User: Which sequence fits this backbone?
């Protein structure tokens, strides 16, 4: 009888685990759909000159894992969907800076494009298990780099303006390699929004914590 009870308890434990896992998956799927909807809302209402339609953009982003990827493996946004949440926060900060400081852009959609795509490289850089509990760096990358890789990936989705390319490439500011600081300085002089993009990224990570 004791053995039967022990087996029965084991089954109960297993049932609980499976139930918990299914609820977690359902919650993650719900959050993914919310992020996709938010993306659609942003780009449908704000954009009319993308050269692509929002659904094809979403399909390509889904293939990249954009709505699932974390924003980092240990610093900020280390959870499934963290990259999207971080990108949206940066976008909001960049839009705030644009409005309050009356910033000019080569096209008015740029704060949204730069904000949402500045960290696109992270779709490719990280590995994470489906439970969203373990995150790491891939060791089989074909493309390395950060800002430059994000530019390459974003260019496959959209035609970027020169200013958007500069903002995404240099969004790390002086966190980039020291030997690049002269080029960073030139980029800021030519496109002041490079500095504001970096500032928006810093506000998101260092002040808002996302
Ligand atoms: Fe970022």
Assistant:
């Amino acid at each position: 009888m004791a053995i039967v009870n022990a087996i029965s308890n084991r089954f109960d434990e297993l049932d609980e685990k499976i139930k918990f896992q299914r609820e977690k998956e359902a919650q993650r799927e719900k959050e993914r759909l919310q992020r996709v909807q938010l993306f659609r809302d942003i780009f449908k209402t704000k954009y009319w000159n993308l050269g692509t339609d929002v659904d094809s953009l979403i399909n390509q982003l889904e293939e990249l894992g954009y709505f699932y990827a974390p924003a980092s493996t240990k610093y900020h946004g280390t959870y499934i969907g963290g990259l999207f949440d971080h990108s949206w926060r940066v976008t909001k900060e960049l839009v705030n800076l644009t409005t309050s400081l009356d910033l000019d852009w080569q096209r008015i959609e740029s704060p949204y494009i730069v904000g949402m795509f500045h960290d696109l490289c992270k779709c490719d850089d990280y590995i994470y298990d489906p439970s969203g509990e373990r995150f790491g760096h891939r060791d089989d990358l074909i493309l390395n780099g950060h800002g430059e890789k994000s530019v390459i990936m974003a260019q496959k989705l959209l035609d970027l303006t020169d200013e958007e390319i500069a903002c995404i490439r240099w969004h790390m500011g002086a966190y980039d390699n020291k030997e690049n600081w002269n080029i960073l300085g030139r980029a800021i002089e030519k496109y002041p929004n490079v500095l504001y993009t970096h500032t928006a990224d810093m506000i998101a990570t260092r002040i808002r914590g996302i």
Observations:
- The pocket of fe (ii) ion is lined by residues 86, 90, 118-119, 201 (CB under 6 Å).
- The longest helix spans residues 2-46.
- The longest strand covers residues 126-128.
